[in-house]
């Protein structure tokens, strides 16, 4: 399950510079800096309340940092909303599923194609002489891409099933599929394996590695399972009480005394 040694890590695609975030008098993040390189799996770890999800929320425009800036593909910004970030090529899954429970698997993943839909209701009114509208032709093309994602994630038997009827592990897979439908360059995964059993975790690990390998997607991952993190990550950044206490390849992070203390309460 470990990452391939032959994988080519590229240049820095995402850089977080001196990010601080406060809610009133409460500091969620303090002067955090790290970067993410193309094609790598970059994990963010830390105890509960360390600021991990807040960091992802800053990256994808849900929160606006109090201080600092974020650069994506060389473009620096302080304040950008979630749609603008998505249009730049960043997709996100959420710790708490935000799927449309009454809609089918297919329709949920189709929702991820919204940014790529070029036609609008006005265009739909104008059909070509063969009775096939531009919008309908586009929907066929979009649906083909979604069907490929469904095949990739091995959820073909459930494509017409309302998501709310699926087991939790499969719902997490649908959530990943919806993010993949955006064709992101950078994929932010917020605890994609939370609440899963061992077999479901193994499946999700495989899909994450395949997304990274076959699609070349850069992945930023929050995960509590240290075995998973150390197995699949290229580099790991560690937060504790909103501050960065470690950063490096898995072996370096494993040996970091500050990280050991934050997790185990001991220097051994």
Kindly describe this structure:
- The protein is an alpha/beta fold and 268 residues long.
- The protein contains ten helices and ten strands.
- It folds into two domains: 1-89 and 184-268, 3-Layer(aba) Sandwich (Rossmann fold); 102-183, no CATH class.
- It has a six-stranded mixed sheet, with helices on both faces. A four-stranded antiparallel sheet has the order 2-1-4-5, covered by helices on one side.
- The longest helix has 19 residues, at 134-152.
- Mean pLDDT is 85; it is low at 1-5 and 118-127.
Features:
alpha/beta, Rossmann fold, 2 domains, 6-stranded mixed beta sheet, 10 helices, 10 strands
User: Helix/strand/pairing class, anyone?
Assistant: alpha/beta
Number of helices: 10
Shape: globular
Secondary structure: helix percent? 25-40%
Uncertain runs:
1-5, 118-127
What is the total tally of β strands?
10
Distance between the termini: 27 Å
N-to-C SSE series?
Answer: EEEHEEHEHHHHEHEHEEHH
CATH class of the largest domain: Alpha Beta
CATH superfamily of the largest domain: P-loop containing nucleotide triphosphate hydrolases
Question: What is the domain tally?
Answer: 2
Compute the gyration radius: what is it? 20 Å
Beta-strand content bin: 15-25%
Largest sheet: 6 strands, mixed
Mean pLDDT over the residues: 85
Spatial strand order of the main sheet: 6-7-8-3-9-10
CATH architecture of the largest domain: 3-Layer(aba) Sandwich
Oligomeric state of the chains present here: single chain
CATH fold description of the largest domain: Rossmann fold
Short synopsis of the structure:
With 268 residues, the chain is of the alpha/beta class. The protein is built from ten helices and ten strands. α7 (198-214) links the parallel β7 and β8.
């Amino acid at each position: 399950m470990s990452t391939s040694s032959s994988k080519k890590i590229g240049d820095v695609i995402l850089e977080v510079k001196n990010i601080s975030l406060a809610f009133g008098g409460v500091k969620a993040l303090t002067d955090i800096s790290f970067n993410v390189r193309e094609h790598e799996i970059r994990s963010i770890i830390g105890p509960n309340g360390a600021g991990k999800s807040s960091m992802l929320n800053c990256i994808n425009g849900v929160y606006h940092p109090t201080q600092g800036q974020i650069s994506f593909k060389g473009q620096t910004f302080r304040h950008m909303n979630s749609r603008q970030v998505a249009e730049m090529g960043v997709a996100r899954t959420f710790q708490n599923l935000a799927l449309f429970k009454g809609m089918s698997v297919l329709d949920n993943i189709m929702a991820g194609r919204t940014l790529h839909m070029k036609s609008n209701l006005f265009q739909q009114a104008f059909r070509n002489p063969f009775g096939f509208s531009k919008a309908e032709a586009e929907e066929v093309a979009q649906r083909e891409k979604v069907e490929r994602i469904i095949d990739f994630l091995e959820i073909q038997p459930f494509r017409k099933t309302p998501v709310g009827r699926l087991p939790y592990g499969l719902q997490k897979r649908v959530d990943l599929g919806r993010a993949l439908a955006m064709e992101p360059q950078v994929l932010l995964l917020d605890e994609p394996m939370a609440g899963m059993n061992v077999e479901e975790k193994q499946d999700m690990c495989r899909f994450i590695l395949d997304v990274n390998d076959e699609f070349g997607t850069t992945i930023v991952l929050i995960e509590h399972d240290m075995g998973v993190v150390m197995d699949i990550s290229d580099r790991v950044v560690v937060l504790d009480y909103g501050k960065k206490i470690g950063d490096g390849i898995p072996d370096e992070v494993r040996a970091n005394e500050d990280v050991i203390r934050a997790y185990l309460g001991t220097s051994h």
